[in-house]
Fold this protein.
Amino acid sequence: MLQQAEHRFAGVRCGIMDQLAVLLAKRDHALLLDCRSLETRHVALPTGWSLVVMDTGVRHDLATSEYNKRQLECADALRVIAKTQPKVQSLREVSAADLEEVAARIHPVGLRRCRHVIAENERVHRAVTALENADTRAIGELFAASHRSLRDDYEVSCPELDALVEAAWGAPGCIGARMTGGGFGGSTVNLVVAEKTEAFVEAVRAAYQRSIGRDAKAIVTAAAEGATAGELE
């Protein structure tokens, strides 16, 4: 119902991730979600890490941006793939090798979109392993690869998001940084060594001011319990 409200009233062809995350979140855990089966698994976040959201200050309207267009581009490419692999119903069923076999038949833009989706699915599973092993190097590499893919292949970033992410990569205590949400503005998500959070925020804000000429709002937060029903007094 929550997803349908966004589709019908907000005009955004979103998935189900945000709604389920709000409802099923668990303190100090990430949520691994299968968007087809709706199966979920909580993955413990390593201790000693903090979660920092950095706001670009750039507002975005996902319904009038190119957010919805990305879905259509992927759907067009999927139809081409299905002509040679009739059982394929989703890009999650397509490997990178499968995609390259039909690359010449797909529009170059659609090909880039598909490369992002397929690679991002793989990165999610690798990130689960990295979190379980508290592997800071792997998380950093996965976050960086994800942002570059969102920027170059899916093309939903913007100069302000790129500036914040690049500032974070060079800031004290940064474990990983990438854009988050639908793109075209909004925020970045950053995993930071907890004891260096203050220095991280100061460095990123200063670098963003130098490169973009505006302030970036920092929100130091943590994974919390999901929404619950309660009575108002």
User: Anything to note?
Assistant: The chain is about 45% helix and 15% strand. The chain has three domains: 1-44, 45-63+157-233, 67-155. The beta strands are 29-33, 40-44, 49-55, 174-179, 187-193, 217-221.
